[in-house]
Specification:
By secondary structure, the protein is an alpha/beta fold. The protein contains 13 helices and eight strands. An eight-stranded mixed β-sheet has the order 2-1-8-7-3-6-4-5, sandwiched between helices.
């Protein structure tokens, strides 16, 4: 009964979610409509839409941007934090229609703790439109090892392949991680977080190879911030990107976001 009440409340909440109405271009502090933002970003090769996981209005906005880009004739790929790259086959089977909804939900729940309903519209639209979804995250088990033991837990050839550089080489990134997280019990927390971001950047770059598709990246605000995955993506490709974040990111980074963090904010 409690589970039923929870999901009824969840469906009610997501059903009542509405799109943000106010958008700000950080480069010139100009207020824009969503249509104006889409006009400006539609030619970018990679579009990061940062999320606060489980926020219905944000997931609704992610879906709306995907739909509007599609309506503009863009060929798309969706890169998703919710699945580690080792589970790519699950997403392939969902898009091609060889995996039923129940089994797909079960596979999703095994990798991601946010209720399926928040992403359901995105998954359904991707399947309907045959938009590939890329599993871009690192394996949690590997990250947990790094948090406790450091980078010695990861093969050196893998670190070279993803072009990993440790936290000591990037003070701005270290400050970002320290401002968002409180994980002093993990001596290698920053390197663990950076490894996760580096894996995401590597998998996004792989999704861009051999095509000219627009990659829409759905990831938490810490990963989508310019200092994180977007900057690491630069070591793999010279393609252009843009970053959209919710205004609430200021509560995570403990300061007012500027264009070093994002290109656009929504309110």
């Amino acid at each position: 009964m409690k589970r039923l009440i929870f999901f009824c409340a969840l469906l009610f909440f997501t059903g009542c979610a509405s799109l943000p109405t106010d958008y700000l271009e950080l480069d010139n502090q100009k207020a824009l409509s969503l249509d104006s933002v889409l006009e400006k970003i539609s030619k970018e090769r990679v579009i990061f839409i940062g999320e606060i996981h489980g926020t219905a209005s944000i997931h609704l906005l992610q879906l709306e941007i995907i739909k509007r880009l599609r309506q503009r004739g863009k060929e798309l790929v969706i890169a998703l934090e919710a699945f580690p790259f080792t589970r790519q086959e699950i997403l392939n089977k969902w898009i091609e229609g060889s995996l039923n909804r129940h089994d797909f939900e079960q596979a999703y729940s095994a990798t991601w703790s946010i209720p399926f309903e928040y992403y359901e519209g995105i998954f359904d639209y991707a399947k309907e439109q045959h938009i590939p979804i890329v599993a871009m995250n690192a394996e949690d088990a590997v990250i947990r090892k790094v948090l406790k033991k450091g980078l010695q837990a990861v093969p050196e050839d893998f670190l070279r392949k993803i072009k990993f550089t440790d936290c000591s080489t990037d003070n701005a990134y270290k400050e970002l991680v320290n401002s968002i997280y409180h994980a002093s019990e993990f001596p290698f927390f920053c390197d663990g977080q950076r490894l996760r971001d580096a894996v995401m950047a590597f998998n996004i770059s792989n999704a861009m190879r051999g095509n000219d598709y627009t990659v829409v990246v759905l990831a938490g605000v810490a990963h989508a911030s310019k200092l994180a995955v977007p900057r690491m993506l630069e070591s793999h490709t010279g393609a252009t990107y843009t970053v959209l974040l919710p205004e609430e990111v200021k509560y995570f980074i403990k300061k007012t976001p500027d264009r070093n963090i994002a290109d656009y904010l929504w309110y």
